[in-house]
Amino acid sequence: MARSPLVSRLPGRLRLRHDWLRRTDDNHAFRATLAGWEGVLSVEGNAATGGVLVLYDPARLAPSNMETRVSACLAEMIGTAAPPSPAAKPARNPRRSKLQGVLDDGDIHRVVKIGMMATMGGSLLALAASKKFHAALGGLHLAFLAFHLVKYRKKLLR
Q: Do 12 and 75 share a domain, yes or no?
């Protein structure tokens, strides 16, 4: 089921997000179309986020009507837009480790996250029972953390 592009709606204000709006030319064309409508006060967009903010006069345009019109306009423009050119599949990086290939799988990473939480809790509980068991669970937690950091290293180093 496709989710609605309307992510926020208040009387006089609509925020939309859609992957199609990430293309700069399409974002600009959509904003220009909406800006030409009577009762629309301003239209701002950001192609990097795929978002558009529409400010309109709710006294002149009923919010439910405006939501319907904007959604229909976006759907129509997406339908008439040229499909994105198929990107060539990137060549596999020979320096890419086998570990990184394993970490790209979402199921594996879900296990890593659960393992981090379980070993953290277990380590805290084991502190009351045995220092050796506490240290073992702490070490296991650090191993899960290392996998986690490898997965998200690009986001962490921005």
A: yes
Distances (CA, A) of 130 to 59, 142, 152: 69, 18, 33
Domain end (from 26, 53, 80): 80
If asked whether residues 74 and 10 sit together in one domain, one would say: yes
Domain that holds residue 137: 98-156
Q: Indicate if the pLDDT at residue 94 is higher than 90.
A: no
pLDDT value of residue 1: 44
Whole-model pTM over 0.85: no
Q: What is the pLDDT of residues 42-86, one digit of tens each?
A: 999 999 999 999 999 999 989 989 999 998 999 898 887 555 555
**Cβ atoms of 119 and 141 closer than 8 Å:** yes
Angle at 24 between CA 19 and CA 28, to 5 degrees: 105
Domain count of the chain? 2
**Average pLDDT of every residue of the chain:** 82
Query: Could you tell me which of 53, 33, 50 has the C-alpha nearest to residue 42?
Result: 53
Contact (CB, 8 A) for 46 and 55: no
Question: What is the spatial distance between Cα 115 and Cα 112, in angstroms, rounded to a whole number?
Answer: 5
Question: Quick check: is 149 in a domain?
Answer: yes
